[in-house]
């Protein structure tokens, strides 16, 4: 436990050196800190460090606050708290400090989408015109989710090799309606034979311009513990920022498509 406290102390010193004004308050034993998210200082987070951090347990996100009025409609604190804890859990590895990686991952999640002035107003387009009616053979689709002009829809399929993943992905992107999507994010994971009869894990993801989306989808595939799966999420962007809520829709549709494809979440 004493070694853990020393690692935590060293980590916080490093964070203060890299981000001099990020930590705004902390308890004398550093078990709880208040920190402004670097590059997104209008969001403050209260974090606690268990006695077994970093040997066994990750930090806990206790509270998230949005302090700038212009972002209050974009970032909902309760959802951010759950999302931040999910990010913290994903970057934590037993025996290693993770606060810097946590900040790096959040930078991608909290970025505000650039408005593409060429994007058409999706409100004037019917769902039938936007959504592929019948995904290619072997693909399973989620129900579409629409939010403030953006529409999200996921598709999942079974794969047995890296080559098959690329091939199936390339084919589905030839669909006329899919080509109108602003982002087609993807994640896949397979087991392949390795040396001495051992299986190797091969996995990858792609944001397609939606920063941090691919890694969140791959994290979802990992926590669902499903294999030989390729999942993609298409987003048709209507020009309105929706902040981190986009990750809620990406994960929700991806999970639905994976389950519809017959992959069972391991207990």
How would you explain this protein's 3D organization?
With 267 residues, the protein is of the alpha+beta class. It has 2 domains: 109 residues, Ubiquitin Conjugating Enzyme; 139 residues, 2-Layer Sandwich (Ribosomal Protein S5, domain 2), CATH 3.30.230.30. The chain contains 8 helices and 10 strands. The strands form 2 sheets. Strands 5, 6, 7, 8, 9 and 10 form a 6-stranded antiparallel sheet that branches. A 4-stranded antiparallel sheet has the order 1-2-3-4. Helix 3 packs across helix 4. About 3% of the residues have low confidence.
Please specify the SSE layout and strand pairing:
Layout: H1 2-18, E1 23-26, E2 32-37, E3 40-48, E4 60-66, H2 69-72, H3 77-91, H4 99-110, H5 127-130, E5 140-141, E6 145-147, E7 150-158, H6 162-172, E8 183-193, E9 199-206, H7 213-224, E10 229-236, H8 245-260
Antiparallel strand pairs: 1-2, 2-3, 3-4, 5-7, 6-7, 7-10, 8-9, 8-10
Helix pairs in contact: 3-4, 7-8
